[in-house]
Amino acid sequence: GLSSRSGTAQACGKISPLLLLPSRSNTLPWRWQPCRRVCSPGSAKDGSSSCPQSHLLAPVKQEQAKAEPVPDLNAKALYEDWDDIPPSSALEEISEEEAVQIIAEQIPPFQSSTLRDYVDHSDTLTRLVHLGVDLSQVEKRQKAGQLLLTLDFERDIKKILLFLKDVGVEDNQLGSFLTKNPYILAEDLEALETRVAYLQSKKFGKAEIAQMVSRAPYLLLFSVERLDNRLGFFKNELGLTVKKTKDLVIRLPRLLTGKLEPVKETLQVCQLEFGFQHHEIQQIVLKTPKILTASKRRLRETFDYLHNIMGIPHRMLTCFPQVFNSKLLRIKERHMFLKFLGRAQYDPAQPSYISLDQLVSLPNEVFCTEIAKASVQDFEKFLKTL
């Protein structure tokens, strides 16, 4: 029984598991001491202590040994403070009512293809969602999901958020910004500050830098050397002044983050295939920077229709380059309707002149009534005949 086991405990054998259970007051009913073998002097034939492994124990003063009596582990003392209820067994049956009250803590999946499965287990992901980050878009970006799972919000992310706010990114833009560029959360803060300082040294104002960073989220991932090379490329290729180069990248900051080869090809197409002069290309790009990132196939089709079908000269296209951003179908439909009405006149020297801006930018109601001098119903009927 218990009394027999207590003798074993006194001899430093195995301590009963019951000794480790707490009492009602959450303290042990006696002071538990590290196991120390109790040996009587002179038990050996030579009269010396015969405690095995005694060399492993620190020396104990005789007075202390007498002051620490071995506890009496009889059953009555053992249960007097435990409500007389022995510990339950892991194999003991419980009722259905008790079973449904047991709530097992969910563990994160070992592997998953979506960040949604980890949100309930990650304070970082939860706070990013509250910030407005779209995790379904983030996980489409290479290794971005794995990156977020390794970051701690307080340690890694908060300082980047404060930096972005200091740069000028609005609170309601942070979620969208991080959705597009989650990689900035792994960037060194000092490196980010150095890149902003570089832009400031190039005389970009605080509001201009805020606009550029917000519209081109990847901008601050570029080193100072790469940013400097990009600015130099547009200045030299287009023959622009420093001020005009700044104006260009402020209007379309993703020119600094996109590939440069497609830009070179577009400039060659404008010069060699379309026949624009260098100064005309300058004007076109400064008025409509997006032309540098437009599809070359679409540019070719639009130019061919405007110049070869409608007869628009280069100088007119230089004055209204916005026409290259318009849908070719809209240009065709409106030109054919005007031609059907006998009003397709694009020469400013002739009466009833219609500018390219009027042709493509006005809504249908205004175009029909003020430019074509017809009703919207007439225009819709005409389109059905095409």
Automatic annotation (TrEMBL):
<keyword id="KW-0804">Transcription</keyword>
<dbReference type="Pfam" id="PF02536">
    <property type="entry name" value="mTERF"/>
</dbReference>
<dbReference type="GO" id="GO:0006355">
    <property type="term" value="P:regulation of DNA-templated transcription"/>
</dbReference>
<dbReference type="InterPro" id="IPR003690">
    <property type="entry name" value="MTERF"/>
</dbReference>
<protein>
    <recommendedName>
        <fullName>Transcription termination factor 3, mitochondrial</fullName>
    </recommendedName>
</protein>
<dbReference type="GO" id="GO:0006390">
    <property type="term" value="P:mitochondrial transcription"/>
</dbReference>
<dbReference type="GO" id="GO:0061668">
    <property type="term" value="P:mitochondrial ribosome assembly"/>
</dbReference>
<keyword id="KW-0496">Mitochondrion</keyword>
<keyword id="KW-0809">Transit peptide</keyword>
<keyword id="KW-0805">Transcription regulation</keyword>
<dbReference type="GO" id="GO:0003676">
    <property type="term" value="F:nucleic acid binding"/>
</dbReference>
<dbReference type="InterPro" id="IPR038538">
    <property type="entry name" value="MTERF_sf"/>
</dbReference>
<comment type="similarity">
    <text>Belongs to the mTERF family.</text>
</comment>
<dbReference type="GO" id="GO:0005739">
    <property type="term" value="C:mitochondrion"/>
</dbReference>
